[in-house]
């Protein structure tokens, strides 16, 4: 939201053990994750392939918080219903994925989900200015999407611009890519309230050593807290 409020941490399971998603999801939630971020890639919009609707549906059985599904696919519209049936709470589509983001956001809400719109690093904040009343979340990519573990690209100016144009609307600003305790304070100071983090949450831990996830989540939360004080 544009309002100053508590920061949510959304670990990306792209950095989890792909042979053990159920336990990984339960571990991050037990260790303090606010949302679970699921990165869907199609090998076309981005140069990597991940999860289709049946996999996402299987994750749903383990998610007790909020399943935040980030579609890096094109086209989007033919798959909206399938991800609704899979149990996504929030479905985010890229503004670059097609010519009709307005229709896409309407369709996502029409299917009973919260609607998100994501912006690649090269896309200006103004690209979403006319769909903010149809969106519950704007995701600012701070890496070029496709892979976890990439270096943070500073998008502070874009985040601040978005924060200003969102105004009083109840729209989350989510940051995705290279978020860690060093980069989190910057993006929160600029107006972000949801932080996706893959490698910074999962690094050093495992389902057999989940306290590490808890420490990593707390390190990001603590770095981000107090920024708005
Ligand atoms: C990138 C994905 C991100 C990614 C974040 O294409 O959308 O969610 O997994 O990973 P880290 O935090 O490792 O940059
Ligand atoms: Zn993502």
TrEMBL record:
It is an enzyme of class 5 (isomerase). SUPFAM superfamilies: Ribulose-phoshate binding barrel. It comes from Roseivivax lentus. A divalent metal cation binds at residues 37, 39, 70, 176. Its cofactor is Fe(2+); Zn(2+); Mn(2+); Co(2+). The keyword Translocase does not apply. Its EC number is 5.1.3.1. This is Ribulose-phosphate 3-epimerase. GO terms for cellular component: cytoplasm. GO terms for molecular function: D-ribulose-phosphate 3-epimerase activity; metal ion binding. Pathway: Carbohydrate degradation. InterPro entries: Aldolase_TIM (IPR013785), Ribul_P_3_epim (IPR026019), Ribul_P_3_epim-like (IPR000056), RibuloseP-bd_barrel (IPR011060). Binds 1 divalent metal cation per subunit. The gene is rpe. It catalyses: D-ribulose 5-phosphate = D-xylulose 5-phosphate. Catalyzes the reversible epimerization of D-ribulose 5-phosphate to D-xylulose 5-phosphate. Belongs to the ribulose-phosphate 3-epimerase family.
């Amino acid at each position: 939201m544009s309002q100053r409020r508590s920061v949510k941490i959304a670990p990306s399971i792209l950095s989890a053990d792909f042979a053990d998603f159920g336990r990984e999801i339960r571990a991050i939630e037990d260790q303090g994750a606010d949302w679970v971020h699921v990165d869907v890639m199609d090998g076309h919009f981005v140069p990597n392939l991940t999860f289709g609707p049946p996999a996402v549906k299987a994750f749903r059985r383990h998610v007790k918080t909020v399943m935040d599904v980030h579609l890096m696919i094109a086209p989007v519209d033919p798959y909206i219903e399938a991800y609704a049936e899979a149990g996504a709470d929030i479905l985010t589509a890229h503004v670059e994925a097609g010519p009709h983001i307005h229709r896409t956001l309407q369709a996502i809400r029409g299917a009973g989900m919260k609607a998100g719109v994501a912006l690649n690093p090269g896309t200006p904040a103004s690209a979403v200015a006319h769909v903010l009343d149809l969106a519950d979340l704007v995701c600012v990519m701070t890496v070029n999407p496709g892979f976890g573990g990439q270096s943070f690209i500073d998008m502070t100016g874009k985040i601040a611009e978005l924060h200003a144009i969102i105004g009083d609307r109840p729209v989350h600003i989510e940051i995705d890519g290279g978020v860690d305790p060093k980069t989190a304070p910057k993006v929160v100071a600029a107006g972000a309230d949801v932080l996706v983090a893959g490698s910074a949450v999962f690094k050093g831990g495992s389902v057999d050593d989940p306290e590490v996830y808890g420490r990593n989540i707390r390190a990001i939360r603590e770095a981000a807290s107090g920024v708005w004080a």
